Amino acid sequence: MAKEKNIASEKMLAEIKHNGHRRAFFHDYSRPGIYMITMVTAGRLRLFGRIVGFSSGKKGTANYPHMDYSRLGFLIINEELAKISKFYPMVDVCKVALMPDHIHLLLKVKTHLPQGKHLGNIVRGFKTGCTRAWWRLQDENDSTNGMAAKTVPEASPSGNRPVLFEDGYHDRILIEAGMLESICRYMDENPFRARLREEHPDLMQRCLHLWIQDREYAAFGNLFLLKNPDRLQVFFHRKDENGRPTHMTPEYEEAKTFLLKRAEEGAVLVTPGISKGEQGVVKAAMDNQLPLILLQKEQITDYWKPSQERFYACAKGKLLILAPKLSSDDSDYKRFHMLNDLTRDICVATDTCILRIMN
Length: 359
Prior knowledge:
Structural class: alpha+beta
Strand order of the largest sheet: 9-10-11-12-8-7-13
Number of strands: 13
Number of domains: 2
CATH class of the largest domain: Alpha Beta
Oligomer: single chain
Distance between the termini: 37 Å
């Protein structure tokens, strides 16, 4: 039977795992834990509502960015979420962030799940319930208006109805101290960040295929920083020639002061921020809102997002994050050396080619 018929007949679908979705295969997803789950609508359809307000609005007022739920969004918040704890009493829904085209759930599994059950069963059941709710709204609209709902794609010639979510989901296990507070803040600020991206599209660009000289990168942030001809490499060894930690020497402080002064004058600092000396310059540049290009080994994908601090630096036009295409066979040591070599190349590059930009 087709997936759509299985859902309609109350059958649970087998979990589909594919690249791009985080799975900790070493982890037992039936045991107690706290998880952040992200599910995206098929085709990124904006079905759950819209964001209203402005990034300049005062927090706590109607002008601050927030979600205005659609009928489907309202049903999910007020009916479908409650079914998780109804069917799995050992699971609490601690927090939800419903956005126009995706959902973040913070789930706490208090005790072991029933025999044969794991986190994937909970997510599949929730997604199935939301899809059925979507279909019911479509049928109501058909009955009331005598026509197909405009927000729902028509059924295929074979009669199959579209499913609400894309296959799979993204999960994050909260195990480190401080992660819960950080995740909750991230979920609360989702509408604000989305509005910020809409208001400043040129400063929040996502480019998955960018060439600098003969090297391919992915990028996020203010691409115009690459057009600044005054780019300075920030590079410090971990120790100086006498074996002293570089970041604790007077020479380092002098060099750091020079780099920050040049950045205040308009130069762009370029670094992977690997050594403590480089990290010190990065922190000072971020604190003082100075222009910065950061290289990282973590890959930038369609849905990758920077940390909160770096996100806001991008929104102010002060940061560009570059992720070179690196071989998975390279060791961390080799990658770190390569990042420093690429930093030097970026500082002297005169040619940049953007093949595709994903907003």
